């Protein structure tokens, strides 16, 4: 058994497409997506939800377009959104035509589900005319009947064959601005299908473990499934599918990328599991800090350790560190060096202000470097 270098992530080389103004594939950053759960026909509610996802850092967002009322509202939603909008189309090809004309940056559609070659041609022509990409979305729960009859059950080979069939329909019409997903709720099935597909296509791959479950269970399944693929360099854009609010999907997506060192956004918190040695309530402190620091986008690290056993070592590796001490006084580390103490009652506000100041300092330094390079 060969063992890979412990921090070796070599990205699979895919060709790059554009989803609106966001590059996907090639050497572009792995993007984080989510999907709204409001009726798209209600533009105000949908835009409000998109705003929360934008605040969480989403790169691309998908909205469902099952009816004429939804595609009619899409133009207003696209105009209000700061990120590219993907229109989710399932069966009626006319919804795809309407969504493309309304300004969708991408159409999520399986060409084989919309009928004749003439209908596929109409959708491709609308995508070309409006600069739309297309996402082919194969799902283990909705495989074509002939593939289930051929293979007997959903399996990696069936998902890959379905994807290749849909790809051919687009390529036959000289359309190549597409990405592909082969999702399944069984993470073993999904991972194997993505691995097989990555060997035979050069298009960008959209990763996901579909119907992953609630916040805790779905996060674990998604982290294991997508994390293993990303570690092997497979994946150009991701969506964490949770029975939770879409902004939570975005935060989990970034946490997966941060854990692998693929993208860094916001505060990376290193904290202890809590034990009887703790000098303060680590659990509640970390919860409060994560909530209070959601607005920070600048990448930086914060360690929160309840005692001085592992605290100093962790603090030396982070931008800001906090370790528990006796008599309600706790040590604060700045850039790995012991700097001062803080009382328990002032600790939370103090750490929040230190993180905000450090983020501003990093941003200012980056702006100065950019000016100097011009």
TrEMBL record:
What positions does the domain IspG C-terminal occupy?
A: 269-356
Keywords assigned by UniProt, alphabetized: 4Fe-4S, Iron, Iron-sulfur, Isoprene biosynthesis, Metal-binding, Oxidoreductase
User: Per its record, what are the GO molecular function terms?
Assistant: 4-hydroxy-3-methylbut-2-en-1-yl diphosphate synthase activity (ferredoxin)
Top-level taxon of origin: Bacteria
Gene3D superfamilies documented for this protein:
Dihydropteroate synthase-like (3.20.20.20), Sulfite Reductase Hemoprotein, domain 1 (3.30.413.10)
> So where does [4Fe-4S] cluster get bound?
272, 275, 307, 314
Give the pathway listed in the UniProt entry for this protein.
Isoprenoid biosynthesis; isopentenyl diphosphate biosynthesis via DXP pathway; isopentenyl diphosphate from 1-deoxy-D-xylulose 5-phosphate: step 5/6
* Name of protein: 4-hydroxy-3-methylbut-2-en-1-yl diphosphate synthase (flavodoxin)
């Amino acid at each position: 058994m060969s063992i890979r270098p412990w921090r070796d992530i070599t990205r699979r080389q895919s060709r790059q497409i554009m989803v609106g103004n966001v590059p996907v594939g090639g050497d572009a950053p792995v993007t984080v997506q989510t999907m709204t759960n409001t009726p798209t026909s209600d533009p105000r509610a949908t835009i409000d939800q998109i705003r929360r996802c934008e605040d969480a850092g989403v790169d691309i967002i998908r909205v469902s377009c099952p009816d004429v009322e939804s595609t009619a509202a899409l133009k207003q939603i696209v105009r209000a959104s700061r990120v590219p909008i993907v229109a989710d189309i399932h069966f009626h090809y006319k919804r795809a035509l309407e969504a493309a004309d309304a300004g969708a940056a991408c159409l999520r559609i399986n060409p084989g589900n919309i009928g004749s070659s003439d209908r596929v041609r109409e959708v491709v022509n609308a995508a070309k005319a409006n600069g739309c990409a297309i996402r082919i979305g194969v799902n283990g729960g909705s495989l074509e009947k002939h593939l289930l009859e051929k293979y007997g059950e959903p399996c990696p080979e069936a998902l890959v064959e379905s994807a290749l069939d849909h790809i051919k329909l687009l390529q036959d019409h000289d359309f190549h601005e597409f990405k592909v997903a082969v999702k399944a709720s069984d993470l073993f099935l999904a991972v194997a299908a993505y691995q097989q597909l990555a060997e035979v296509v050069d298009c960008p791959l959209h990763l996901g473990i579909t119907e992953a479950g609630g916040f805790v269970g779905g996060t674990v399944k998604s982290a294991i499934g997508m994390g293993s693929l990303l570690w092997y360099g497979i994946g150009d854009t991701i969506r964490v599918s949770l029975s939770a609010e879409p902004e939570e999907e975005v935060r989990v997506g970034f946490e997966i990328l941060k854990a692998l060192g693929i993208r860094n956004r916001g505060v990376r918190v290193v904290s202890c599991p809590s034990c009887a040695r703790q000098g303060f309530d680590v659990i509640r402190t970390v919860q409060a800090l994560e909530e209070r620091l959601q607005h920070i986008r600048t990448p930086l690290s914060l360690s929160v350790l309840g005692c001085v056993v592992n605290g100093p070592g962790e603090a030396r590796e982070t931008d800001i560190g906090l370790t528990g001490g006796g008599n309600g006084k706790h040590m604060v580390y700045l850039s790995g060096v012991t700097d001062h103490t803080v009382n328990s009652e002032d600790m939370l506000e103090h750490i929040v202000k230190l993180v905000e100041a450090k983020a501003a300092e990093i941003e200012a330094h980056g702006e100065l470097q950019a000016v100097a390079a011009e």
